[in-house]
Amino acid sequence: MPAAIRTAVDNQTRPSPGDRQAMVKAVVDQMLQHDQNPTRATCHSIVRGIVRDYPKRFADVGRNGDILGDGCHSLLQQIKTRVEYKNRNNTLAQRRRKKRPTTGVAEETGVMARGPVDRYGCVRWCPAELPAGETEATLDEMKRQLHNIYSEEGMGGAGRAEALMEKTYVIQRRYLNSLPAPAISDIKEEWPFLFSQRGLYSHFSLLTDISILIKLQEALKNRGSTLIWFSQELKRHPEIEDVLNNFEPEASDKAACILLLLLAYFKEPKSAIVLETDYPEDGSCTLEFIQRCFLGINPEMGSKSKNKQLSGINPHVSTLVRKLVDFEWMSM
Asked: Do residues 238 and 323 share a domain?
């Protein structure tokens, strides 16, 4: 191992990007002595060992020590990229089995692949147990009460409806997860208070165990500032420069600036952040960064972007996270 890496390990400090790259080269050179074309699974196994033994030095973490996914993705990407670079002229080493289909259908059996018990960062995707002391009949009665409140007060009754919305969460999820999926207009008719700010925040909190307002405020205060400082150091990026030139710390909306910086960094259109019923492919990096780095929803597997692999963090998101972590540590 390079001397700088040994020093960082001994001093329990995070290595600089240059030292980290030197370590990647050394690790890959040793790997290739045993296997000219290690698989991604082999690389992942080696990276897991490094991250497990030295999480503070090499894991994908934020300033507060929270680990993204399994903490391995950025180092895994660097090692796999180095392996591919070393094998760029080795045609035999480039041969691989055909990838499994990404449609969720098994290639030979035609059987739909089994999904996870809970979905992508959600802790109550489809709860089965009814609230204590309640039955299907009492929950249906609460739903009728919610309709009465809405017919009398409209969205102004969201405060009165909040307790009933929490009680009826089980049947809300059952309805939302039904197949075929209900149309937005039908959802608004069945559960109108899901379209109120209070109702939406409450539902998200039950779904993920995360208070989205508190999380976003903390993220904008801490990581948002880091993102702005990091963006100011970037060169030859006109879109980011335009955003920063129009940002006035005392007068501008910091949240809007951060959102525009993310869209500019990932080269995604501003229109992509306005969601319709489908997850926008051209805005998936920005949305995944917000989900993982601002809200702390970090499943190790899965992605809503259909154009990426079905496991791990989006590599563009992972790269930005690693750069921000390095920037934070170098700035301390």
From this structure: yes
Burial of 238 from C-beta contacts in 10 A (0-12 / 13-18 / 19+): exposed
CA–centroid distance for 22 within its chain: 28
- The DSSP code for 125 is S
Q: Which domain holds residue 163?
A: 136-208
Q: Which two tokens stand for residue 107?
A: 């290639």
Tokens, residue 37? 């074309």
Q: Provide CB contacts within 8 A for 151, sequence distance 6+.
A: none
Copy the structure tokens of residue 56.
Answer: 């503070």
Helix (H, G, I), strand (E, B) or coil at 32: helix
Give domain status of residue 141, yes or no: yes
Residues 147 and 190 grouped into a single domain: yes
Task: Give per-residue pLDDT as tens, 91-128.
Answer: 555 444 444 444 433 344 433 232 343 555 688 888 88
Give the end of a domain, one of 86, 108, 128.
86
Q: How much is the pLDDT for 195?
A: 95
Q: Name the least confident of 40-54, 62-76, 106-120, 222-236.
A: 106-120
What is the pLDDT at residue 102? 42
| Residue 202 sits in the same domain as residue 217 | no
